[in-house]
TrEMBL record:
<feature type="transmembrane region" description="Helical">
    <location>
        <begin position="229"/>
        <end position="252"/>
    </location>
</feature>
<feature type="transmembrane region" description="Helical">
    <location>
        <begin position="98"/>
        <end position="118"/>
    </location>
</feature>
<comment type="similarity">
    <text>Belongs to the binding-protein-dependent transport system permease family.</text>
</comment>
<keyword id="KW-0472">Membrane</keyword>
<feature type="transmembrane region" description="Helical">
    <location>
        <begin position="288"/>
        <end position="309"/>
    </location>
</feature>
<keyword id="KW-0813">Transport</keyword>
<dbReference type="InterPro" id="IPR000515">
    <property type="entry name" value="MetI-like"/>
</dbReference>
<feature type="transmembrane region" description="Helical">
    <location>
        <begin position="37"/>
        <end position="61"/>
    </location>
</feature>
<feature type="transmembrane region" description="Helical">
    <location>
        <begin position="139"/>
        <end position="159"/>
    </location>
</feature>
<feature type="transmembrane region" description="Helical">
    <location>
        <begin position="199"/>
        <end position="217"/>
    </location>
</feature>
<keyword id="KW-1133">Transmembrane helix</keyword>
<feature type="domain" description="ABC transmembrane type-1">
    <location>
        <begin position="93"/>
        <end position="309"/>
    </location>
</feature>
<protein>
    <submittedName>
        <fullName>ABC transporter permease subunit</fullName>
    </submittedName>
</protein>
<dbReference type="Pfam" id="PF00528">
    <property type="entry name" value="BPD_transp_1"/>
</dbReference>
<keyword id="KW-0812">Transmembrane</keyword>
Length: 322
C-alpha cells in the first residue's frame, strides 16, 4: 500500500508577522527618540496655538462681549457677515485689499527671473555678494524698514532730494501723506524686502538639475537664454506651480505688518485693507464678534482660491498640493 503524499503545500514561516512589525517599529522609534520628542513638541505647539484657539471662531456667529463667556453669548447666526457686506467701508476695503494683493501677485515672476540670472553668474565671490545684499532686508522687521522708508520718503528725505536735483519735481512731496503713492510704495518696498529671500527656493530647485542636461543643450547649440528657457524653467516647473498656488491662496492677505507701519490718517483711503480693518474694529472698537466674522470671511475666500488654483494647476501641468 503506497503512502500518498499530501498535495497541500507546507506553510512557510511568516517573518513579518504583526507582532514582529510592531517590535521593529518600536525599536526604530526608540532609536529616533530625540528626533521624535522634537517633533512632538512642534505638534504640541501647533495644537495649543493653532487648533485649540479655532474654537473662538464661533463668536463670529454670536453676540460676544468680554463680560460673558463664549458659551453664554447669544447666537445671532450670519448677522455680522450681513453687516460687513452692507457696511459703507466694504467697497474700498475690498478694493484696497484686492488691488494691493493682485499687484503683489503680478510680481510673482520677479524672484524666478532673479534666481535664473543669479544662477548664470560665474564669479562665486560676486554671486555671494549679490545674495547677501538681496537677502539682508528680509531679516529686518517692518518696524525697522518702516522707519527707514518714512525717513527716506519725508519732505527732506533722500528721494525728494534726488528728484529735486534731477529737476523732476519743483517742491518736496510728502509721499506717505498722498494716497495715490501708497500702493506703489507698498509694492516696491515689498519687492525690496523679499526678492532675494523668495529666490532661495528657486535657486535650491535649480541646483538639483543635472549638469548633463545643460551639456546636452550646449552640444545642440543652445545659448544661455535658451538653456534657461528650455532646460531650467521646465525643470523647476513643479516648484513654480506649488508656490504660485500658495501665492493665489494668499491674495486676501496684504501683509498687515507692512500696512500698519506705513499707513496714516492721510492715506487711509488707499491703506485701509481688510487685515487692518479687522484689527481696528476688533481691538480699537471692541467689536470682537464682528471682526471675527470679517476674518472668517477672508479665510473662506482664501480656502476657495486655494482649491481653485490647485485644481487648475492639476489640470494644466499635473502639479498640485493634493
Amino acid at each position: 500500500m503506497d503512502i500518498q503524499q499530501s498535495s497541500q503545500p507546507t506553510a512557510t514561516i511568516q517573518t513579518n508577522t504583526p507582532p514582529e512589525k510592531r517590535r521593529k517599529w518600536l525599536r526604530k522609534l526608540y532609536t529616533q527618540r530625540h528626533i521624535q520628542i522634537m517633533a512632538l513638541l512642534g505638534i504640541a505647539w501647533m495644537i495649543i496655538f493653532n487648533y485649540i484657539p479655532m474654537y473662538g471662531v464661533v463668536i463670529a456667529f454670536k453676540d460676544y462681549d468680554i463680560i460673558r463667556t463664549i458659551s453664554e453669548a447669544p447666537w445671532v447666526g450670519l448677522e455680522h457677515f450681513k453687516e460687513f457686506l452692507s457696511d459703507e467701508n466694504f467697497g474700498y476695503v475690498m478694493r484696497n485689499t484686492l488691488g494691493i494683493s493682485l499687484l503683489k501677485l503680478a510680481t510673482f515672476p520677479l524672484p524666478i527671473i532673479f534666481a535664473l540670472f543669479l544662477n548664470e553668474v560665474r564669479s562665486l565671490r560676486f554671486k555671494k555678494s549679490i545674495q547677501t545684499i538681496s537677502y539682508l532686508p528680509h531679516f529686518l522687521s517692518w518696524v525697522v524698514l518702516g522707519g527707514i522708508l518714512a525717513t527716506w520718503l519725508s519732505d527732506v528725505g533722500i528721494f525728494n532730494k534726488i528728484f529735486m536735483a534731477l529737476n523732476l519735481i519743483d517742491q518736496p512731496i510728502s509721499f506717505l501723506a498722498e494716497p495715490k503713492y501708497f500702493w506703489t510704495i507698498v509694492i516696491t518696498s515689498d519687492i525690496w524686502k523679499e526678492l532675494g529671500w523668495s529666490a532661495i527656493i528657486y535657486l535650491a530647485a535649480i541646483t538639483s538639475i543635472s549638469p548633463e542636461m545643460y551639456e546636452a543643450a550646449r552640444i545642440d547649440g543652445a545659448g544661455r537664454f535658451q538653456q534657461m528657457w528650455y532646460v531650467t524653467l521646465p525643470a523647476i516647473k513643479a516648484t513654480i506651480s506649488i508656490l504660485f498656488i500658495l501665492a493665489v491662496s494668499g491674495v486676501m492677505n496684504s501683509n498687515f505688518d507692512q500696512i500698519l507701519v506705513l499707513r496714516n490718517a492721510l492715506n487711509d483711503s488707499a491703506s485701509n485693507v481688510i487685515d487692518y480693518y479687522v484689527y481696528y474694529t476688533g481691538l480699537s472698537q471692541g467689536r470682537f464678534s464682528y471682526s471675527t466674522a470679517v476674518g472668517l470671511f477672508k479665510s473662506v475666500i482664501a480656502i476657495t482660491l486655494l482649491l481653485i488654483a490647485n485644481q487648475v494647476s492639476k489640470k494644466l501641468n499635473d502639479t498640485s498640493l493634493f
